[in-house]
Structures are given as C-alpha cells and as structure tokens.
Design goal:
Elements: E1 13-14, E2 18-27, E3 30-37, E4 42-50, H1 54-73, E5 82-88, E6 92-98, E7 104-105, H2 113-132, E8 135-136, E9 145-147, E10 153-155, E11 162-163, E12 169-171, E13 176-178
C-alpha cells in the first residue's frame, strides 16, 4: 500500500480504478501521473499528495475545493476538468483530471513577439473566464497552463483557487478547516 515516503511505482492502482503508468511532473502540493482509468478505458492525469496528522484535513479540504472548482470550470473549453478525488492508502490523497495529451507548459519565450502575445492573450482570456465564473486562480504561471499539440491552451491546477464570495472555511459533515490564512505564503513566488 502506498504511503508518504516517495513516488509511486508504475502499475500501482489508485482507488481500484486508476493504474499509474508514469510520472508526468511534480509541484508544490504533490506529483502528477499518467494513469489508465479502468472505468472508462481512457488515460487520465492523477495528482497525488501526501498528508498526515494535522495537515491531512487541510489538504483534504484543498483537494475537495480543487475538485469542485475543476469540475465546475471543466465543463467549459480551455479548463482541465476534475473527474474524481479521494484517499489512497493511509497518507495519500488523489485527484483525477482529464488528460491533455502531449501537453507542454505555456511558452512565452519562443516565437515571434506576435506569437508570444497571442499565447499570452489566450491565457489571459482563460483567467478572465474563470473570474467570470467567480473563480480566482491565485497561482497563474506558465506551468499551470497546458498547451496541446494543436496550440490550444488549457488552464489547470486550482489547488490555491478561491471561489469569490465564498467563505474560506470549507464545511464537511463534522469539521470546518481554514484553508488559507492571511499573511501565509503559498504558490510559486517567482
């Protein structure tokens, strides 16, 4: 069974539904894997994060919020949809997402100035569309925009996002956990 000690091996099955194929990348809150969804026979992206002790409820609240936001926005073009979330083993949480095949991070360096500005404009339009839905991303950076081989851009990683007008407390059946704290640094400083 998986725990918080390190990367998960290929072949590991998460939630009796997703078979991990390979690591796609790592970030501040965990690792993202390419996986096969047995239920639908499709490839998906699985975000895995380790949590134990006091941090577990906080991370669970963040994952719950990220899943809800990703599901809500993911019904629109240009957003990566969350399709499932839950616990895996004793210390791990997972979030299953639609896969953007052969995606690369948003490239704002190569190409002509006009090409770079066009990509930046597409990225800004996605942020504006999220804002129009009441979602403030709070971690916009090239790595959180995925570009598919056809040049379409997709916004992902709503782990720090906030729903405008919604209290920062996330309710579950038994507890309330404060998800963010004023003067607390998160995200990517650069």
């Amino acid at each position: 069974m998986a725990d918080a000690r390190g990367p998960l091996p290929p072949g590991e099955v998460v939630a009796e539904r997703y078979e991990l194929e390979r690591l796609l990348g790592t970030g501040g809150m965990g690792a993202v894997y390419l996986a096969k969804d047995f239920k639908f026979g499709e490839q998906v992206a699985i975000k895995i994060a380790a949590a134990a002790g006091r941090d577990e409820e906080l991370l669970l609240a963040r994952f719950r919020r990220e899943a809800r936001i990703g599901y809500r926005l993911g019904r629109r073009t240009g957003f990566v949809r969350a399709i499932d979330w839950g616990r895996h083993g004793r210390f791990l949480l997972y979030l299953a997402l639609d896969l953007v095949p052969n995606a690369t991070p948003l490239d704002l360096i190569s190409g002509t100035q006009a090409e770079r500005l066009a990509r930046l404009r597409q990225a800004a339009e996605l942020a504006a569309a999220a804002h129009a839905e009441g979602v403030i991303h709070r971690d916009l950076k090239p790595d959180n925009y995925l570009c598919d081989p056809e040049g379409a851009i997709h916004l992902t990683d709503f782990g720090l996002a906030k729903l405008e007008g919604v209290e920062e407390l996330s309710s579950s059946d038994l507890t309330q956990v404060q998800i963010t704290v004023t003067h607390s640094a998160m995200g990517t400083p650069r």
